[in-house]
Amino acid sequence: MHIHTLDEFDARGKRILLRADLNVPLKNGKLMDRARLERLKPSILELSQKGARIIICSHLGRPKGRPVPELSLQPVAEALGEVIGQKVRFVTTCVGPAAEDAARSLADGDVLVLENTRFDPREETNDPAMAEALARLADIYVDDAFSTAHRAHASIEGVARRLPAYAGRLMQAELTVLETVLNRPKHPLAAIIGGAKVSTKLALLGNLIRHVDVLVLGGAMANTFLAARGFAIGRSLQEPDMQATAREILAEAERENCEVLLPKDLVVADRLAAEAAIRIASLDAVPDDAMILDLGPATVEMVVARISAWRTLVWNGPLGAFETPPFDKATSALARAVANATQKGHLVSVAGGGETIAALRHAGATEGFTYVSTAGGAFLEWLEGRTLPGIAVLDR
Questions:
Q1: Architecture of the domain defined by 185-364
Q2: pLDDT, tens digit, for every residue of 85-115?
Q3: Active-site residue, from 89, 377, 385, 386
Q4: Of these residues, 29, 96, 354, 364, which one is catalytic?
Q5: Residue 197 annotated as catalytic
Q6: Confidence check: pLDDT of 385 > 90
Q7: Would you call 218 a catalytic residue per the annotation?
Q8: Is residue 30's pLDDT more than 70?
Q9: What is the pLDDT of residues 37-54, one digit of tens each?
Q10: For residue 97, what are the contacts with CB-CB under 8 A and spacing of at least 6?
Q11: Strand locations in 76-194, DSSP E?
Q12: pTM over 0.90
């Protein structure tokens, strides 16, 4: 893969269409989290300081091809100005005469945010007319939104075919890390995969067992694997119709010499509630009326003991119902152990996915990881080995 970067063109006086991810949480018109804006800051400031005229496009939410006032990017543009420390202009459309006039009026170093691209029904269908309209706004296209790279939309894939296309610094960093982790990792390479359903992570598991040396399974997804091995799991969340598939995955892992670590003990309760009475159960002693809600302390101890031997780790998905303490203990303990090994220089650790980020923040471990991807679907699809449309169009 050869992706061109900001180092490879003269930005001065050029109008740059920068595809960003401004899909941030809003409540009553106010931003609840600026993490994605902070990550865009290096590319925006670099281009601005080089004299580029920056036109930022992004989606926000799912307006289904029509204007929805609550999903306007105007408050996001204002917050972005505060993050980068300079005025950010805003135009109430993403294509057409008003957008073209606003783009033409920019001076060197100026920043403009276009209205939500998904207000136009042609965005999600990758309509050539919309891609052409976006291309008319600029001289160069820069994609700094890896988190949307799995979408073949007009502002991602379509316009990149019509302008010289480059990766921004955030995109460049993300691709470098992910390429290293899956294609050039230091071994032993481990993966911690949690979450609720095997069915949503079949492709991920199938790809990982061909790459990793150790696969740790947790979350409700592990319940299906335990049931597939004949253990009684009470009233725990599981997918009965996926048990045969779980056995196939375990058999394939054995053929690929991938060690699978399943729980050896479990935290159970009669209901998912903070005040519920909990107990630690061995695999053969889960009560019929109980729910498995977290990994047990012996399982955590087993995995923590293994971390010191690993050199690379990929993490996706929580290992228990972390949103409801005390069922957050396993996820938090393992996250802090991974962060500690990373900070000591023993481990390269990469995590991604919305729930994963929330779990790592809850544990106070985010800053300790080598890289935490803000991407959700794109991160998963990359780990599944898929070709992402937004990356393929940048690969020359």
A1: 3-Layer(aba) Sandwich (3.40)
A2: 999 999 999 999 999 999 999 999 999 999 9
A3: 377
A4: 354
A5: yes
A6: no
A7: no
A8: yes
A9: 999 999 999 999 999 999
A10: none
A11: 89-91, 111-114, 140-143, 165-167, 189-193
A12: no
Of the listed 36, 53, 151, 201, which one is catalytic? 36
Burial class, 28, CB count within 10 angstroms (exposed 0-12 / middle 13-18 / buried 19+): exposed
Is 174 in contact with 43 (CB distance < 8 Å)?
no
What number does CATH give the domain 6-171?
3.40.50.1260
Residue that is written with structure tokens 């276009």 in the block:
114
| pLDDT single digits (tens) 305-342 | 999 999 999 999 999 999 999 999 999 999 999 999 99
Per-residue pLDDT for 396 more than 80?
no
Residues making up the chain, counted from first to last: 396
Instruction: Say whether 123 sits in a helix, a strand or coil.
Output: coil
CA dihedral over 276, 280, 283, 286, signed as positive or negative: negative
Q: Is the distance from CB of 85 to CB of 125 less than 8 angstroms?
A: no
Q: pLDDT by residue (tens digit) across 140-186?
A: 999 999 999 999 999 999 999 999 999 999 999 989 988 888 788 99
Give catalytic status of residue 50 as yes or no: no
Residue with tokens 């700094």: 144
How many Cβ atoms are within 10 Å of 241's Cβ, its own excluded? 10
Read off the tokens for 347: 């481990």
| Residue with the two structure tokens 């220089």 | 345
- Span(s) in the chain for CATH 3.40.50.1260: 6-171, 185-364
Distance CA 338, CA 319 (A): 14
Q: What does the DSSP assignment read for 207-255?
A: HHTTT-SEEEE-HHHHHHHHHHTT---TT----GGGHHHHHHHHHHHHH
Average pLDDT of the chain is 94
User: Active-site residue among 34, 50, 89, 197?
Assistant: 197
